[in-house]
Amino acid sequence: MMPPSFSTVALTGLVVVLVAQTLLWLLSLRLRDASIVDPFWGPGFALATLAYYVADGRHTPRGTLALVLVTLWAARLGLHLLVRNRRSGEDARYAAMRERHGERFGRVSLVRVFWLQGVILWIISAPLLTAVRSSRPLGLWDALGSAVFLAGLACEALADRQLRRFKADPSNAGRVLDTGLWRYSRHPNYFGDATVWWGLWIVAAAGRGWWTVFGPVAMTFLLLRVSGVPLLEKGLERSRPGYPEYVRRTSAFVPWWPKR
């Protein structure tokens, strides 16, 4: 029996993700908290990959590897964001949007927050789709991609742990974390996140999915220029007196020795 076409599997993933985002939107209306979309970012990729895996039906070794890897990343990131967001209430970005749109916020958030995130997620997940579709045997490039993935996951998890412990100490209020991984990068957690996706792309490229390089490129761009570094640094410059000096001596993204 012939496997379903590439477009059929891809559209199955899109439909599953958009249905999940719509259900999440309905929950956000009940909770009056659009921030619940953020913890779903990681699990959304795992869900899309699972949809590809089931729709394709062949359960290839590379597809299994991609599903396992992305699920590991998704579970860690989703749990981390869920615990963090429960303590802080609705994110200021969504609160400002809620105030700006008033009664229209429900409809606006469905399209501009939940569905938009779903479509972006689906586009970036292209390496995972090609990995699931590949029937080529696993090899050294898959091992390299997995190693890069695990290095990124470890970097991301350790950076988040160091930051969590730093914030938990009341004596650090108003101070800048510049020890551990944070001595070498202002955003080691984001660097780890980007590295995870380059690792997944290497696995996909080993199965002739090299053309999906736009996936990790887009993820890195989002972290560096859109929803990651710029938003965070804007707030830190106002709330941390020592942050401008930290910026001058510390690499923004790729870990490197601090300047004197």
> What distance lies between the first and last C-alpha atoms, to the nearest angstrom?
64 Å
Q: What's the overall average pLDDT, rounded?
A: 93
SSE pattern, N- to C-terminal: HHHHHHHHHHH
As a percent range, the share of strand residues is under 5%
Number of domains: 2
Estimated radius of gyration: 19 Å
Tally of contiguous helical segments: 11
> What is the β-strand count?
0
Ranges where pLDDT stays below 50 over 5 or more residues in a row are: none
Shape: globular
**Major sheet attributes:** none
Instruction: Indicate the structural class.
Output: mainly alpha
Portion of residues within helices: over 70%
Q: What are the salient characteristics of this protein?
A:
0% strand, mainly alpha
Could you explain how this protein is built, in words?
This protein is mainly α. The chain folds into two domains: 1-135, no CATH class; 137-260, no CATH class. The chain is built from eleven helices and no strands. The protein is globular and about 65 Å long. The relative contact order is 0.12.
In brief, what are we looking at here?
The chain has eleven helices and no strands. With 260 residues, the chain is mostly helical. The protein is globular, with a radius of gyration of 19 Å.
